Amino acid sequence: MEARRLLSTLGTGVKDAFAENRSILSLEEYLEAFLGAPRRHARGSAQYLRDAMDHFGADERETPVGRVRRFRLFDLAFDPAARPHRVAGHEEVQAAIYRALGTFVRSGRVNKLVLLHGPNGSAKSSIVSALFRAMEAYSRTPEGALYRFHWVFPSERRLRGAGLGFGTREGGEAEPASYAHLDGETLDARLSCPMKDHPLLLLPRDERRRLLEEHCRPSAREGAGDSDFVLADAIAEGELCQYCRRIHDALLGAYRGDWLKVLRHVQVERFYVSARYQQAAVTVEPQISVDAGYRQITSDRSLAALPPALHSLTLLEPFGPLVSANRGLVEFSDLLKRPLEAFKYLLGTSETGRVALEHFLLHLDLVLVGSANERQLAAFKESPEFASFRGRLELIRVPYLRRASVEREIYDQQVTSAAVGKHVAPHATEVAANWAVLTRLKRPIPERYEGELRELVDDLAPLDKLRLYDRGAAPDRLPLAQAKVLRKHAPDLYQESEVYPNYEGRLGASAREVKTALLNAAQARGAACLTPRAVLEELASLCKDKSVHEFLQQEVVEGYHDHDEYVRMVEADYLDTLDQEIRDSMGLVSEAQYLELFQRYVMLVSHWVKGEKVRNRVTGEMEPPEESRMAEMERLVMPPGEDRATFRRGLIAAVGAYRLDHPEAAEMDYGAIFPDLLRRLRDHTHVERKRQLHRAKEQLLRYLSDEQASLDDKARRQVEMALGTLRERYGYCQSCAQDAVLFLMRRRYEGSA
To answer: What is the value of pTM for the model shown?
Structure first.
């Protein structure tokens, strides 16, 4: 009884949802829905895909390399199960796809194939997959409803009992009856349109065009987002597929031109985009065949039940990926891996939306997207046929990511404790992301710049460039004025090689290769956690496979492409971070002390720049800012050779700029404004206290190595407090904390007294 009650409850819910979604309609009911929201129901495939991108919204974001617009659909927030597969970065690619769709919409038809090209593993397929998932989710919303139609034929014997025929409305007006809502027992046959033709194509073309032009004019009812709506040729000028045209004309002849009787056989059904079931979202793998065909419908019991007028018809049913994808999106994965003859038909299809089969033409309404790696595209460009294809392709470059924090998002999503079966230590994925991005960077081109900027660019090391792209951080060695100039031109550096075939981000370690290295590091013997140390060892091992990885074969150019050295750079950077975390955790020098000291200095400089006096805390007298106190701080944080007056004015200018950019901020965030200066201050203090730091870290290591008995109570309390901070603030467990401290001691403090 419990099972029956459960099934009954579920059945009621499914039935209610079916009715609420208006899953089955007669043509008359569909036309009523169309008149209520004409633009929503008159969209072609390009408009539909662009609306899906708009539906999930977009955010404008400021980055060190320029302002970008990110479409939220690529975050896959609407599908929690797919979140690990979200697309990190690639906002430029998203914008290019959106622009291409806008061009298709304005021209009224899809007249090009969008070809995503880039190195292997640069997220081309992930981008298309996100579009598929967004279309699937959008098609289940009221705004994204899609409809197709079927031909339904009831049993004549049962039909008499159903009392169907022509009825009248209350006012005596004649209305067509419909077989659309007959249940399955009453129907003898149902023929589905194989092309998922739009129900509006059932209307005669001239009348349909007038209807669309009348009801799809700009109006406030459908919102400002539809102000650029353009009727798609496939809807305004299209015709039924040959399969449906034969059925329609045969019924029209049988009813002696009574078109309303023909429409009784039309059942309009809502359908949903589905990549799994290849419905308006299809991926075509490399294969040697045309992506469509046809077959004759053979006789079976259901077809024998068709009206006599249809018995003599030869119905040819098209099939294949293009047919399944109609009214949606088709992806040609690794398109250029196929022989040219296998996709040469796309010359005409991409421009006209037609595919010529042996006995008839297929008319398509779908967005075509392909992917190719750079080596394949370069070879294709050498082909004589490329000149013909060039005008039919919308080329969109998909490089490797060049911002380390964005690259890290990929590994944080996919290399989790659940995925590797153990705790992922802090900085394990960060180390991998930093190294991956370093392998992709190219030496800047100083000749593109002038004056002081040329010298700054020429002196930019790989790690400097990584930090500039990622955090907008200029090298510590630069004076404030030069650092400001470099940060201002970071977008120019980021885009400087885009015009070249060998652009930045074309070569380097792919996220796929680095993820494999992370998973291998997770299998290190005896390790309870996936640690940065194990990741660094795995990356060093990867660098030895020069015959396997093309990017390892590049010539070293002034520090760039030196992948073995990059492992050491990343290690040193990680040790700096680790050193800082342990210091802070042991409470030797607090962050608040740094900020308080620096804040007092900035206050003095502010009064100095304004020519104001300050009150002496001891005497209470108003005096000029104490030069010796300012000079003491500047000795620690000011770049060598910089003029004090210039440095101070630049400091206050930076504070003023932050205030203008953050008017809502209650307090000044000096850590965000001057990260380089504060780092110099910390480093100086730590050098002065190196002996104390060494002793404290030794105590921490002894505690973790089960030598607690050798520590006095004060030392033990200090260590336990440090471990608590490492765990709560930074995410360490006891095992990876021990590994980190041991690694740091061996690399930095062995031999220190």
So the answer is: 0.83
Token readout for 541 is: 């091992």
- Using DSSP, state whether 117 is helix, strand or coil: strand
Residue with tokens 């804040």: 599
Spatial neighbors of 669 by CB under 8 A, at least 6 apart, are: 658, 662
Per-residue pLDDT tens over the stretch 50-88:
999 999 999 999 899 899 999 999 999 988 888 888 999
* Residues 326, 318 contacting (CB under 8 angstroms): no
Closest CA to 176 of 264, 253, 251: 264
Q: Which amino acid is at 420?
A: V
Is the separation of the CB atoms in 684 and 569 below 8 Å?
A: no
Q: Are 210 and 328 in contact (CB under 8 A)?
A: no
- Alpha carbon distance 458, 471 (integer Å): 20
Could you read off the pLDDT of 330-387 as tens digits, one per residue? 999 999 988 888 888 888 888 888 888 877 788 899 999 999 999 999 999 988 888 8
d(CA 539, CA 556): 18
The one-letter amino acid code at 517 reads A
Element (DSSP H or E) covering residue 690: helix 690-704
Three-class secondary structure assignment of 568-633: HHHHHHHHHHHHHHHHHHHCCCCHHHHHHHHHHHHHHHHHHHHCCCEECCCCCCEECCCHHHHHHH
* CA–CA dist 313, 317 (Å, integer): 12
Instruction: Give residues with Cβ within 8 angstroms of 735, minimum separation 6.
Output: 423, 528, 529
